Amino acid sequence: MTTRTPDADQELAAFLRTRRERLDPRDFALPPRRGARRTPGLRREEVAELAGVSVDYVVRLEQARGLRPSADVVEALARALRLGPDERACLFDLTRQRRRDAEGPATTAAPQLARLVADLSPLPAMLMNHRYDILAWNPEMAALLLDFGTLPAARRNAMWLCLAHPETRERYADRERVLREGVAHLRSAWAAHPEDRVPAGLIAECAAHDEEFARLWTERDVRVNGRGSKAVRHPDAGALAVHFEVLTPLQDTDQRLMICRPADGASRAALDGLTGR
């Protein structure tokens, strides 16, 4: 299989097409038009009318002809396509309209945040950058998922562990849901930083070696999981479940702090057993 990295213009074009095609014309107060619809969703001229732009402009966007819409146009397209919050953020990222920090991603944990991760014990916690590289973790998180210190630095990445690492990916009880959400989450992360070659390389690697990933990637779902739950089949502790929360520090906005809590008493006992408490 040929390995290809994503292209931002092509992704923007495909994203706009898929969102347009998913809409039901009956949900819009559009004037009647002659002729049967030959494709699903709204027509390009209908999106143009709803967004207040020319049909040619929509055509050029969907053909990846290098347009850079203004923030006002992006907002109008988001309204016309009825995008949800995550989809709207993705559209702004793909059109380069979201503000970005001038510096590259953090490769080491901010010292204060590394201490916070340690202080959060006995709750499992870890710190990541926008690539989901794992910069710091406490013993409880290592016991729950994996001893990250045994991995090469380039493989200490939460997305790679979730999507491609054989041992970790099989720990999730609801593997299909976790994979689907992981792909959607990775798309959101890549769209926010399409100039960053590392996430693009991870996407190409997974798409080349995992048919299920490649199929889900073409669906172009986007999602940002700031909180949720995961059920885990741990090889030592058995079945357990955790709730997680992902926080972004105001002082270090490229870094993300994930904190897990046992979902029930049995899971708390299982985690205590793993860490010898």
TrEMBL record:
Residue intervals of the HTH cro/C1-type domain: 41-88
Matches recorded under PANTHER family: BLL4672 PROTEIN, BLL4672 PROTEIN-RELATED
Protein name, as recorded: Helix-turn-helix transcriptional regulator
Phylogenetic classification of the source organism: Bacteria, Bacillati, Actinomycetota, Actinomycetes, Kitasatosporales
Gene3D superfamilies: 3.30.450.180, lambda repressor-like DNA-binding domains (1.10.260.40)
Originating species: Streptomyces tremellae
Pfam families documented for this protein: HTH_31, MLTR_LBD
